[in-house]
Amino acid sequence: MNLIAQTLADGLVLGGIYALAAVGFSLIFGVLHVINLSHGILVLMGAYLALIFSEALHIDPLLCIPPVMAVLFCVGYAYQRFLIQHAVDRASVNSMLLTFGVALMLQNAMIWVFSPDMKSITPSYAFTSLKLGPVNLDAVRLSALAASLILLSCLAALLRFSPLGRVIRATAQQTMAARLCGVNVRHVYALTFAVSAAFAGAAGIVIGIILPFSPMDEGGWTLNAFVVVVLGGVGSPAGALIGGLLLGLVSTLTAQYVGPAFPNVTMFLLLVLLLLVRPNGLLGNAFAPSR
Known about the structure:
Oligomer: single chain
Number of helices: 11
Strand order of the largest sheet: 1-2
Radius of gyration: 19 Å
Helix content: over 70%
Number of strands: 2
Structural class: mainly alpha
Low-confidence stretches: none
Distance between the termini: 50 Å
């Protein structure tokens, strides 16, 4: 019984991280209709920037979230406005090829700068733990889960209540109507990508304090984001949270009771099953066109 409780707790923590890492991918897919194959690189950029900032400034890695998000926001805006938008103007498939090429180039640049070795971010409370009945949770995992939930809530509030969020939702639902109302759609697309990149960078920090990372991990985080979006639905932080928690629980339960080599197998079996039963995800498309 203790083992089941511990496994479920670990799955929830991992699921929260999966959700935060995937929410940016979900937002881009829902608003821009672009499959960003360089999403994993943006996540790793956040992790490496946090590693640099925390070591240079001697501060807690989670305190690096605001500056890292600011840097990734600017990078994401420029990336979409000056590269991806030009590719989309020519053919929608070009954006997929472009992001794949950018991911390969930046992955090799990271290998050259940081080496292919595994890195990790170790906060000062790395060896502090809290025991809740049969469940033992270390402070790092608790802080990572709390940071993930807070950031997801902030994004949900941004999309629902802020003027920017209303413009993003309007552009995603009725692009032509938004243009007729004077909305600069290209600017909104770039801002959406910038917000997504910022949250991907924040996810990289949360990942970095729990798991070791290297440039070779970028494909895995892009794939996980895709699976989470398919499970939970497109464009919704709540959908990303549900999809991430489901994926985290399935991964930890499979690793514990079937074998550590089988989480990917069960993940894709779950993906295929959900595509057959509910192809739009558990919560559907948050940006479905209004009638």
